[in-house]
Design goal:
single chain, about 180 residues, mainly alpha, 8 helices, about 45% helix, elongated
Length: about 180
């Protein structure tokens, strides 16, 4: 070896790598394009930024913190069943045409307006839905008794409750943008 190759070890390695890369590659050694890797093949990242450490193993998934309607604390109805003087117009509509009033209520609750004509005990079903969606305390038995004793009064109470829920949602709505 001459003196220059001993003083410059990088130059010596460069010369060796040149001799390795200039050797011809046979057809058996060339990578095959558009072929799937063998079973058990794990690709190795080419960039040091792709793999920065050991993989993270998630042992337990995070749980959502938002409460659903069934998890909210129970509350009572906003108004009593006999508080018809709070909304005289609704009471008149419920007493003079309860089927039409219930059809309108069903549509307002997101149900088909034909429910009062087709579904037996539809008022109880709508009342249970309203209670469960808005976390109102009570039972199916209480709903049956309210509807049986005073069907029109229970319809009016449901209408007032829907109005209350809508007003609560409107007051808690956040407006984003220019004012």
């Amino acid at each position: 070896m001459d003196e220059t190759s001993e003083n410059h070890p990088l130059q010596n390695q460069t010369q060796k790598s040149k001799t390795l890369t200039t050797q011809p590659i046979s057809n058996n050694q060339r990578p095959k394009p558009n072929t799937l890797p063998e079973k058990g093949y794990i690709p190795i990242p080419q960039s040091p930024h792709q793999c920065t450490g050991p993989p993270t193993v998630v042992v337990q998934q995070p749980t959502p913190t938002a409460l659903t309607a069934g998890q909210l604390p129970k509350r009572s109805w906003d108004s009593g069943i006999c508080d018809c003087d709070d909304d005289i117009a609704s009471c008149c509509a419920a007493f003079w045409c309860p089927i039409c009033f219930e059809a309108w209520l069903a549509a307002k609750m997101g149900e088909a307006c034909c429910i009062p004509c087709i579904v037996p005990n539809s008022t109880v079903a709508l009342r249970v839905k309203l209670r469960s969606e808005n976390s109102i305390e009570g039972s199916v038995m209480n709903d049956c008794c309210a509807v049986t004793c005073c069907w029109q009064c229970s319809l009016c109470q449901m209408k007032r409750e829907i109005d209350h829920v809508i007003s609560q949602k409107a007051s808690t709505m956040v407006v984003i943008g220019e004012v």
